[in-house]
Specification:
Blueprint lengths: L20 H13 L15 H13 L3 E5 L2 H12 L6 E5 L5 H8 L3 E5 L9 H11 L3 E5 L8 H11 L2 E5 L7 E2 L2 E2 L6 E5 L12 E5 L2 H10 L15 H4 L15 H12 L1 H19 L15 E2 L4 E5 L5 H13 L5 E2 L24 H7 L2 E5 L6 H16 L2
Parallel strand pairs: 2-3, 2-4, 4-5, 5-8
Antiparallel strand pairs: 1-9, 6-7, 6-10, 8-9, 11-13, 12-13
Helix pairs in contact: 1-9, 2-9, 3-4, 3-7, 5-6, 10-13
């Protein structure tokens, strides 16, 4: 009897969708006009592409203010500087996150205080309270790592009790919500990324939102507005800038009109893209189910609507040798997985204990969770059937170990 042919996937995990034609046309128009700098307008009543993007994203987020900048990491730095973080001041953040988050804390002179994650890959709120009391921190930089949303109502209640401010890193949750409230609208400020592998794509780019007059005024001046802050439409009134404009340094990191032109049509399609990502996530999860109960997905909170541009799962039963065989066999079958348990960083995948510029931390629960945690991109260039097949390939590899 002939053995069944092993399932294999043929696809590129780093290939994103093409930029929409209307976005390309808008970008070409900017280039033809030559006015790429956000403040370079033909008349005083002209709204630049960057200012228009800020208006549209603030409206999308149901926030008063938005600032477009050079990257998501720069947005994190702006937010903490605008908050008034002092040199050496502790900042609470996730132990399970990506290196730009603690990197931003270091860049502004803060000191990272890491918090454990749960098996569902969200912040451990009990450990958070312990770290608040231990460190005396007055700020949480919350990373919605890989798009997973903690119970935001419970979190905000605990932060209010301890008088701790919240800045949200929404690099993985653009378009997501909790109890119908947009991710990024729960704290003092929120930071978003438009890097290529995020929900809208300008290669690099960042967005910062807030309802607070003073912190947004500081952020705008910090970003390099010079004295042109009145050209920001999604910004506080001019009088708010008077007290801070000469006390706030210029740390240039503006977005340009070319990237804003590319992003605006993508923003208009974001909610539809979110539905497509969820279809692909569900199909991938369906494929994994053929493995039975050995492959475990993190549970979503009932009140969370997530926009999963990637998927994570755990397989707890493997020995170290089986784990390496699993990863190697998946690659041979065309499935590229990231693994958060590796001793050495690989590409963008690293673990908190490899960030040696931080004070040493002990996070035994996070260590245990990451030891057998796998991660897979879900680009929209994959069809729903592609994603189901990838899940089936993984399940089949697991069944033979």
């Amino acid at each position: 009897m002939t053995a069944p042919i092993a399932k294999t996937f043929h696809g590129n995990f780093t290939q994103q969708e093409a930029i929409p034609e209307d976005a390309i046309e808008a970008a070409v128009a900017v280039m033809q006009g030559g006015r790429l700098h956000r403040y370079n307008v033909a008349s005083s009543d002209e709204v630049s592409q960057t200012a228009a993007l800020e208006i549209e994203f603030a409206k999308y987020q149901n926030q008063q203010y938005c600032l477009a900048c050079a990257s998501g990491g720069y947005a994190l730095q702006l937010a903490m500087r605008s908050f008034g973080l002092a040199q050496g001041e502790p900042v609470l953040t996730n132990g399970f996150t990506l290196s730009p988050v603690p990197g931003a804390i270091e860049a502004v002179g803060g000191r990272s205080v890491l918090v454990e994650c749960t098996a569902d890959l969200v912040l451990d709120l009990d450990h958070l309270e312990q770290q608040i009391e231990h460190s005396g921190a007055r700020l949480l930089l919350l990373s919605h790592m890989r798009g997973h949303l903690v119970d935001m109502d419970d979190l905000c209640s605990r932060l209010k009790k301890h008088n701790v401010a919240l800045i949200e890193d929404c690099a993985h949750t653009m378009g997501a919500s909790f109890n119908g409230r947009k991710s990024g609208s729960h704290g003092l400020m929120a930071c978003f990324s438009t890097q290529t592998y995020k929900h809208i794509n300008s290669g690099e780019g960042g967005l910062l939102t807030s309802d607070d007059d003073e912190v947004m005024a500081r952020a705008i001046v910090l970003s390099g507005s010079y004295m042109l802050y009145e050209r920001h439409a999604a910004a506080p009134a001019a009088h708010v800038f008077e007290a801070i404009k000469l006390q706030t340094p210029n740390c240039s990191g503006r977005m340009d009109n070319l990237r804003a032109a590319i992003l605006r049509p993508q923003l208009a399609r974001l909610d539809e893209a979110g539905k497509r990502w969820n279809e692909r996530y569900d199909a991938f999860a369906e494929g994994l189910k053929t493995a039975g109960n050995s492959i475990v997905l993190p549970k979503r909170h009932m009140a969370a609507y997530e926009v999963p541009s990637s998927i994570q799962f755990s397989i707890h039963r493997y020995s170290d040798e089986q784990n390496l065989e699993f990863l190697d066999t998946c690659v041979k079958r065309g499935v590229e997985l990231k693994w958060f348990g590796a001793d050495e960083p690989k590409a963008y995948t690293s673990r908190y204990d490899s960030w040696q510029y931080l004070e040493a931390s002990s996070l035994p629960n996070t260590d245990s969770i990451l030891k057998r945690l796998y991660d897979c991109r879900l680009p929209l260039t994959f069809s729903v059937d592609d994603c189901r097949l990838i899940g089936e390939v993984i399940a089949e590899v697991d069944a033979h170990l």
